[in-house]
Design a protein that fits this description.
The complex is a heterodimer. Chain A has helices at about 10-35, 40-75, 80-85. By secondary structure, chain A is mainly alpha-helical. In chain A, helix 1 packs antiparallel against helix 2. The longest helix of chain A is centred in the middle third of the chain and has 36 residues, at about 40-75. Chain A is extended. The relative contact order of chain A is 0.14. By secondary structure, chain B is α+β, with helices and mostly antiparallel strands. Chain B has a single domain, classed as Alpha-D-Glucose-1,6-Bisphosphate, Chain A, domain 4 (2-Layer Sandwich). Chain B contains 3 helices and 7 strands. Chain B has helices at about 15-20, 65-70, 140-180, and strands spanning about 1-10, 35-45, 50-60, 75-85, 90-95, 105-115, 120-130. Chain B has a 7-stranded antiparallel sheet with strand order 1-7-6-5-4-3-2. The longest helix of chain B has about 45 residues, at about 140-180. Chain B is elongated and about 50 Å long. The chains are: A mainly alpha, B alpha+beta. At the A-B interface, helix 1, helix 2 and helix 3 of A face helix 1, strand 2, strand 3, strand 4 and strand 5 of B.
């Protein structure tokens, strides 16, 4: 696994990444297969898995996030990030074929 | 403005490529990427879409006229990705944070099942726009844009080699086993 911005956050990052990867690897294929289900069944699956992610990884995510946020501040990256987010929050994927 | 685009197939199913994305770094082809951190992540309980915002820390060996001009080799990139299992699309947008007042590099990558072999292959399509800001002295901005574009193409190639290796080592046994079972 790659390093974090600061060495202090690397152990938390590894713990969080491992948690997310384990969850994601169990989530993805059934979610792909769920495309053939009814909307209702699909939403029920998504809800259940979103909750499961929160339960399993929510705690370590909070610790890791606090650590990284501090690192972002300490490295003076906060303003650049805020600027980029203001320019383009990317809360949804950009419109297809929108670039070029 | 420099444009760059390419598309090719990875010979792995879409879900394997998308899982592999989180294992891409570190890899020996892409030593310029030093750090990777998740800044934000959400799982949409309605749509099942996973949105991830990351910051990547890179170190580039730059020609001395560039480091003299901008004083640093550290560069940070903001990357926002969306994984939609329903449509089997992974959409990754990256923008440079460092030197953004001087030049912008906007990259977009889509991973989708290959139309010709959707169960086994994944199409990677990438576009990038590289633009030096105009208030720079013209010859400097031309040279800078050219250097950034060349560097982008080199890194794109390294990314392809590196990610291919990662996917191979991650899935080789698993996929050959599956092939035998079929």
């Amino acid at each position: 696994m790659a390093h974090s911005l600061t060495p202090e956050c690397t152990p938390l990052k590894h713990e969080y990444d491992a948690c997310f990867n384990a969850w994601f690897e169990g989530y993805l294929q059934p979610a792909v297969n769920a495309a053939s289900l009814t909307d209702e069944q699909r939403v029920a699956y998504s809800r259940q898995k979103a909750e499961e992610y929160e339960q399993k990884c929510g705690k370590v995510w909070e610790s890791y996030k606090n650590c990284v946020q501090k690192a972002v501040k300490d490295k003076g990256l906060e303003d650049m990030l805020a600027e980029a987010t203001k320019d383009d929050p990317l809360l949804e994927p950009p419109v297809q074929n929108g670039s070029s | 403005m420099h444009y760059f685009s390419q598309a090719f197939n990875y010979s792995h199913p879409w879900s394997h490529v998308v899982i592999g994305m989180w294992h891409k770094y570190p890899n020996p082809h892409c030593t310029h990427v030093l750090t990777v951190d998740v800044l934000d992540r959400s799982v949409d309980p309605e749509t099942g879409v996973v949105r991830t915002e990351r910051i990547l820390g890179c170190k580039q060996k730059a020609p001395s006229w560039i480091t003299k001009l901008f004083g640093t080799e550290d560069a940070y990139v903001r990357e926002v990705s969306f994984i939609d299992p329903r449509t089997q699309t992974m959409d990754v947008t990256s923008v440079n944070l460092s030197m953004s007042q001087v030049a912008t590099c906007y990259e977009r990558i889509l991973y989708k099942p290959s139309p010709s072999n959707p169960r086994e292959n994944t199409v990677f399509s990438q576009t990038a726009e590289i633009q030096a800001r105009l208030h720079l002295w013209r010859t400097v901005s031309d040279r800078l844009e050219k250097w950034l574009a060349e560097r982008f193409e080199q890194n794109a190639l390294k990314g392809k080699l590196g990610f291919s290796d990662v996917l191979r080592s991650l899935w080789e046994n698993n996929e050959s086993q599956r092939m035998h079972l079929q």
